[in-house]
């Protein structure tokens, strides 16, 4: 990334990804109150925007948030298999919320694909909100 405008564009994409993830972070935190990995991924991505985190820091934060998403996905699948539809919906919502946070960190760590990861973050946030609404309407 030699052109300064490329960095500015990447920072804008990362900022939008963080905003998307922050909008649904509470869904994950209500489901897994002691698990701070998605919040840390967002915070790391925000620090990267301001120059106080490296791409490697963001890769590590991405991997941690992705592991949190996988954990909640396993819970969702287990709940669904055991007939716990409401619990499964909430766990799926939490999975998408953690995934949005993971994508924010990944956008910071992969300059060539930042726009795509920001889009994934927005889509994951939309899915998290949708699943939470489905849960609340039951």
Structure characteristics:
138 residues; 84% helix; mainly alpha; single chain; 5 helices
Written overview of the protein:
The chain has about 140 residues and is an all-alpha fold. It has one domain (about 25-135). The protein contains five helices and no strands. It has helices spanning about 5-30, 35-50, 55-80, 85-110, 115-135. α1 (about 5-30) packs antiparallel against α2 and α1 (about 5-30) runs parallel beside α5 (about 115-135). The chain is elongated, with a radius of gyration of 15 Å.
Write the layout of secondary structure elements.
Layout: H1 4-31, H2 37-49, H3 55-81, H4 85-109, H5 114-136
Helix pairs in contact: 1-2, 1-4, 1-5, 2-3, 2-4, 3-4, 4-5
| Oligomer kind | single chain
Compute the gyration radius: what is it?
15 Å
**How far is the first residue's CA from the last residue's CA?**
49 Å
Uncertain segments of ≥5 residues (pLDDT<50)?
none
Work out the strand percent.
under 5%
Q: Average pLDDT across residues?
A: 94
> Globular, elongated, flat, extended or rod-shaped: what is the shape?
elongated
The biggest sheet amounts to: none
Number of domains: 1
Write a brief structural summary:
It contains 5 helices and no strands. With 138 residues, it is an all-alpha fold.
């Amino acid at each position: 990334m030699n052109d300064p405008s490329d960095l500015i564009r990447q920072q804008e994409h990362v900022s939008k990804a963080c905003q998307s993830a922050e909008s649904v972070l509470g869904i994950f935190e209500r489901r897994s109150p002691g698990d701070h990995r998605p919040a840390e991924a967002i915070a790391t991505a925000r620090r990267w925007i301001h120059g106080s985190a490296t791409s490697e820091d963001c890769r590590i934060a991405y991997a941690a948030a992705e592991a949190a998403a996988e954990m909640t996905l396993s819970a969702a699948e287990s709940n669904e298999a055991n007939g716990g539809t409401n619990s499964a919906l909430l766990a799926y919502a939490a999975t998408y919320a953690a995934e949005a946070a993971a994508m924010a960190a990944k956008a910071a760590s992969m300059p060539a694909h930042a726009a795509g990861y920001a889009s994934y973050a927005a889509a994951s946030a939309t899915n998290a909100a949708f699943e939470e609404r489905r849960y609340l309407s039951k």
